[in-house]
């Protein structure tokens, strides 16, 4: 019974979190590599399993500051691409460390493809800052 009352609250929370604009910050340093990073606004998506969702915050390590500007320019397309990717995942896949590493590679590949960049010229790594499946 509590689930029925909690669902509207969670949906409102998800909408609230997704309405913010994403920001890309060049010049931040990542602990594993020291490159610039672009921080994205949080994602809250339904997973392919109907009653589960993923709340995810991440930063992208980028090759240079120009990539940060390109991410800002293409942010709606980047977010769209990532929402489609994330919502296609099954919660069980993402529970394991291997599943998270695979997702990191897929995010990197999809963003670079969206920006029409090669890995060494674009997004070089993905850092999860928040990763919650419910």
Describe this structure as you would to a colleague.
The chain is α+β, with helices and mostly antiparallel strands and 134 residues long. It has one domain (23-133): Band 7 domain (Tetrahydropterin Synthase, Chain A), CATH 3.30.479. The chain has helices at residues 2-18, 65-73, 75-87, 91-95, 97-115, and strands spanning 36-46, 53-62, 123-133. The protein has a 3-stranded antiparallel beta sheet with strand order 1-2-3. A hairpin with a 6-residue loop joins strand 1 and strand 2 (53-62). Helix 3 (75-87) runs antiparallel to helix 5. It is globular. The two termini are 17 Å apart.
**Outline type:** globular
Number of strands: 3
Helical amount among residues, as a percent range?
40-55%
Write the CATH architecture name. 2-Layer Sandwich
Determine the N-to-C terminus distance: 17 Å
CATH superfamily: Band 7 domain
CATH class placement: Alpha Beta
Identify low-pLDDT runs.
11-33
Q: Element order, helices and strands?
A: HEEHHHHE
Kindly estimate the percentage of residues that lie in beta strands according to DSSP. 15-25%
Largest sheet: 3 strands, antiparallel
Radius of gyration (Å): 15 Å
Q: Within the CATH hierarchy, at the fold level, what is the topology?
A: Tetrahydropterin Synthase, Chain A
Q: Trace the largest sheet across and list its strands.
A: 1-2-3
Put simply, the count of helices is 5
Helices and strands, with pairings:
Layout: H1 2-18, E1 36-46, E2 53-62, H2 65-73, H3 75-87, H4 91-95, H5 97-115, E3 123-133
Antiparallel strand pairs: 1-2, 2-3
